[in-house]
Design a protein that fits this description.
single chain; 174 residues; alpha+beta; Alpha-D-Glucose-1,6-Bisphosphate, Chain A, domain 4; 8-stranded antiparallel sheet; two-stranded antiparallel sheet; 5 helices; 32% helix; 35% strand; DUF3828 domain-containing protein; signal
């Protein structure tokens, strides 16, 4: 019986970790990072970004592209369960960096802001809020359990799909 209980706790721990594996905490801020294997080069990817209405303030350097996501709606319709009402009715504004190496690119999303598009005139006195406010605990050193168990997977899939520009493969090797 102890072995079964231990196994269940282990599986629960692993499944929770898998839901936040692309998220990390760096100096009290949440970052999302993913590496894609791809034959696309920086010029091709910049073209995709410019032709999409999901990005703004695009700039580039020798091996990187910088930009901002614009009012990105969280992708939750493919799941059998739903995120919190808060996630369903807000959008995401964030900064991103795409770094390039041969046949790979790495996306880092940071400064993630939750935005309420239904409150444009601020009549409810709500403000844009950093994701850290709702998702971290212990002086921004740990993810809170609600984020891990409910909303992390929705943000993860949203960012993954946003920056997956074709037949790219997942990779962890940078």
């Amino acid at each position: 019986m102890k072995k079964i209980t231990s196994l269940l706790f282990f599986l629960l721990f692993i499944s929770s970790f898998a839901q936040i594996s692309n998220f990390s905490i760096d100096n009290g801020q949440i970052h999302w990072q993913k590496i894609y294997e791809s034959k696309l080069n920086k010029t091709d990817l910049l073209h995709f970004l410019k032709s999409s209405n999901k990005f703004s303030d695009l700039s580039e350097s020798e091996n990187s592209i910088y930009g901002i996501t614009k009012n990105l709606k969280v992708d939750f319709k493919k799941f059998s369960n739903y995120p919190s009402i808060f996630v369903q009715h807000t959008t995401i504004i964030s900064k991103f960096i795409i770094d390039f190496k041969e046949n790979k690119y790495r996306v880092t999303v940071k400064d993630i802001i939750i935005h309420d598009p239904t409150n444009e005139d601020n009549r409810l006195n709500l403000r844009d809020v950093n994701l850290e406010r709702y998702c971290l605990k212990n002086n921004n050193t740990e993810f809170n359990s609600r984020f891990i168990s409910t909303n992390a997977k929705f943000y993860d899939v949203t960012f993954f799909n946003l920056f997956n520009f074709g037949k790219e493969k997942n990779s962890q090797d940078w």
